[in-house]
Batch of 3 targets.
Target 1
Amino acid sequence: MLRSNRREEEARAKKPKRRINGEGSIYQRKSEGRWVGQFKDPAAPGNDIRYVYAKTQQEARKKLKDEMARAQAGLLEEAGTPTVGEYLGWMENVVSGEVAHRTYHNYLSQIRNHIFPALGKYLTPEQVKSLLVAAKGDRLEALYVLAVTCGLRQGELLGLRWEEVDLEARKLTVRRQVQRSRAAPV
């Protein structure tokens, strides 16, 4: 009987301890191998869950500890609604391991070259009207009209074919897009 108790104690000692309530949790994402730390922020409305990301478990543990200390001191901003810039910053933390390498870099390129420079800028109805008046009679007039009325991206606009346009049903289906390739032509 003594021998089985010793084995049970040894097994318990080897088993990782569970974190107690309020300590947060740390886990590794299988899809990308990155470590995630999360905790409930008691100061946030509805006890919002906060996340930190790291390459190693030790780094995640340190980041989690630091972030929890900042939360306890009331130094974290309200989780609420992020700004567009903060939301787009999510790309580098979350999306990188979830999509193909080229897709990720295309996203970053689009954000850096088109979205960040235009934050806070938008076309007013008068500017849209001026654009459409200027495009009148241009061979790409239909392209401009679709761009401002449907919000299609450049690659989607350039990938459209007539069989994807149903004028009677007033419906447009985007099935493909044109992409620029960095590879040498074959």
Target 2
Amino acid sequence: MQTNHLANKAKLALGTVQFGMPYGIMNGATEAVPEAEVAAILALAWRRGVDMLDTAVGYGRADEIVAAVCPADISFACVTKMPPLGDEDAEVRAAEIVKAQAKLRVSAFYAVLLHRADDLLGPKGGAVARALEELRRCGVCERTGVSVYDPATLNAVLDLASDRKSVV
């Protein structure tokens, strides 16, 4: 049996979507988690060894709320996700990531992921790859990657991967 060489480096990230918008089954998806509870969740997570947050531009006010209620002595690493391109250009979406970095007051994201691999694999893929690389080159993030939902997409993305700083 093969072992995963990354197994000893596993990280647990706390999702933040429910902090910025109605989401999930606990609150019936009618309201976001109250800010006081967000503060308590962040503090508890930190005390219990969680050192990473999973956020995204599309998570409503999550970035703003996390920045407002997170104690100053806590410094989570953050993974964020670029929204699907839709009709926008990759540079517009990259600018949204830079704004999120400022909102969260992080020196650099641990990783910036694409929400949709099709943005990388489709006709705008070259521009998307360049925008992600520019974010990394400018120090906005340490790594880049994509969310994948099936083996065929994973294979296609891995075929494009040019270095091992990328994450999937």
Target 3
Amino acid sequence: MTASTEPRSGLYWGWALGETEWKSGMDANLLSIGRFSYHLSVKDRNLTAPPGSPAEGDTYIVATTATGAWAGHEDDVTVWDGADWVFGTPREGWKAWVEDEQTGVVYTDGAWASEAAASVDVGAQLHAADAKTTPVDADEFGFTDSESAWALVKTTWADIKSAFKTYYDAVTSTLTNKTLNSSTNYIDADALHTQAVNDSGGTLVIGTAVYIKDSSGLLPTIAKARANSLTTMPAIGLVEEASISDGGAGSIRTSGILTGVNTSAWSAPALLYVSSTTAGALTQTKPSGLGVYAQPIAMVVKQATSGTLYVFQSEAHSTLESDINTATSKTSPVDADELAMADSENGYALVNVTKANLLKSVRNELQHFTRMGV
């Protein structure tokens, strides 16, 4: 009678009573128990080919990509019987002692794994571990590698930061040092900026006050601001780059700290205005006079040849009203004295008229009324 095979252990059984053909099957059972079930111990689990001079009973776990007599038996347990290699196919839960590693392994989910790793409750250990609020670059983190059959691997905090930076740089194109860029402007942790094209006819240097002149595509064009005309005002900010060549695009600081500016002429915390006499320049003296506008734009934070300004936004105001209020009184004006006037024939631009011309106009109007009998 042909013996049956027990499915879990692979041992033979079921011979008829008195049957004489059981010897080979029983011998196979005993050898299988001795080789694979009785305190299984293997010499190595990392060899891909048989060793050169094995002793009878030497046992190994066959590593992946096996060759020679072990080819096709990856993860099998193999024993040298003195003449040939005998293989046992592991089942879920088989355990073995690896002599060269001095560690136990268990066969689970189709692979051999460290018995300690297979039995550790990682979640419980992680929950019970000491907390560290500020990791350093050399600290290590464990994770399962989806590209390597979910093997347990590790990485450092430095590598995690590098991976995040690479990811966000790719997503935002220009995410660096907390800065979000777009085609026209960006914002970071301590300042506001805008991108613009230099249309001044020359190079613009750091700290130059600029106004919007026109546009070039999505970007505004800029030139040096000057507080003697609304056509060159108001200033939108100060050049924040070392220089912007004519026709080139660059960054303008519209608000916040600006470093690297020559502030040696002023002491902190001087209030600076857009100059009415020198295009693009700053002045501590508040501009005044006919047709002049006052726009405070920065405060001195540090006085130095490479100093610091705090840039801010404000409106440009005509100084005429304050100039008149603070002017010296003159009770007897002469013909050459000038009066301010808004010119209705020229967009109400601010112009001046002498006392002589004003009186002449008044006389003409009176004569006109007299002729009409008014």
